[in-house]
Amino acid sequence: MSVLIFIDQAEGHIKKASLEAMSYGAKVAAQLGTTAEGIVLGSVTEDLAALGKYGVKKIHHVNNPALDHFDAQIFTHAIAEGVKATGADVVIFSNNVDGKAIAPRLSAQLKAGLVSGAVALPDTSNGFVVKKNVFSGKAFANIAITTPVKIIALNPNSYKVETAEGSAEVAALNVNVEAPKVKVTAVNKVTGEIPLSEAEIVVSGGRGLKGPENWGFITDLAHVLGAATACSRPVADAHWRPHHEHVGQTGLAIAPNLYIAVGISGAIQHLAGVNRSKVIVVINKDPEAPFFKAADYGIVGDAFEVMPKIIEAAKKV
Ligand code: FAD
């Protein structure tokens, strides 16, 4: 058996979610009595050999500029070729935006069983069984993958990054890169923002903030804490905030170390996207708001009175 991890990068930098995927993949490989290898697509600015500290022994680098921009179809094809070239039996992705786009396509292309949203190491004592969240995080399912090639997409922030001494062998891999079927004509970058999916701390606002003119409470606290900002779905639907900030069942699922929810009721569809956060703080004027049941810390109070005090206190820390 051999394990291949897709190491995701943006503008040459390896994403945090990939560090988790490498640590996880190295553990899976150890369980199977084999070594973990990684595959990187496109140009990178980082020292790939240094990724050995996350447990990967060899990095296959497809250094082709045609892969500098993410394209799910082309990436899937390149990784499928990588799987064949390396003879990998287990392929690991982060279940981030890129992983969600590639893993199902790869599964169809290789006729390989896929568990997306894995939250724990596979149980290999009797087959290959992977645990994942189901019913919007209300339950777990243990799913056996029985195909020769097995694919796991690991939920971000569900496996701790582990490091040890070591460097990886880096080898160039040439694969057939398909011609793109779509062309990127412009990229509008949001500058200065911490990407929500990678953030350790998230400050999030709901309809309780009454309107976009009051979002300074959220952005100011986020700025002081070095946090990303998020919102509930009605807030994005009302165009108070951009849609990429919407978290929940139909938005982004996140798992930061700290999630601060301000004026959000805590509907099940919202919780589905945030209930894997390590610590949840809820600020709501209604003591019966459902979010308090999921909270580690709660403040019953009017956000318009509470938030200025919290921001001031945070500035002093
Ligand atoms: P509200 O429900 O209006 O709650 C506002 C809260 O603010 C209340 O609890 C109130 O007590 C509090 N409040 C009011 N004033 C103040 C104040 N001055 N200070 C402090 N607190 C105050 N929602 C999501 O968020 N994400 C999703 O992905 C999502 N997907 C959905 C999918 C489906 C199929 C469906 C049907 C719904 C989905 N929803 C989703 C909507 C979800 O059901 C809720 O309607 C939504 O989360 C409520 O948003 P909210 O808490 O901001 O607003």
TrEMBL record:
Residue span(s) of domain Electron transfer flavoprotein alpha/beta-subunit N-terminal: 3-186
SUPFAM superfamilies linked to this entry: Adenine nucleotide alpha hydrolases-like, DHS-like NAD/FAD-binding domain
Record InterPro entries: DHS-like_NAD/FAD-binding_dom, ETF_a/b_N, ETF_a/FixB, ETF_asu_C, Rossmann-like_a/b/a_fold
Keyword RNA-binding: no
Residues the record lists as binding FAD: R207, S232, R233, G263, I264, S265, G266, A267, I268, Q269, H270, N284
Domain of life: Bacteria
A molecular function GO annotation: flavin adenine dinucleotide binding
Transcription regulation keyword on record: no
Cofactor(s) listed in the protein's UniProt record: FAD
UniProtKB keywords: Electron transport, FAD, Flavoprotein, Transport
Note describing how the cofactor binds: Binds 1 FAD per dimer.
Any one GO BP annotation for this protein: fatty acid beta-oxidation using acyl-CoA dehydrogenase
Family, per entry: Belongs to the ETF alpha-subunit/FixB family.
Protein name: Electron transfer flavoprotein alpha subunit apoprotein
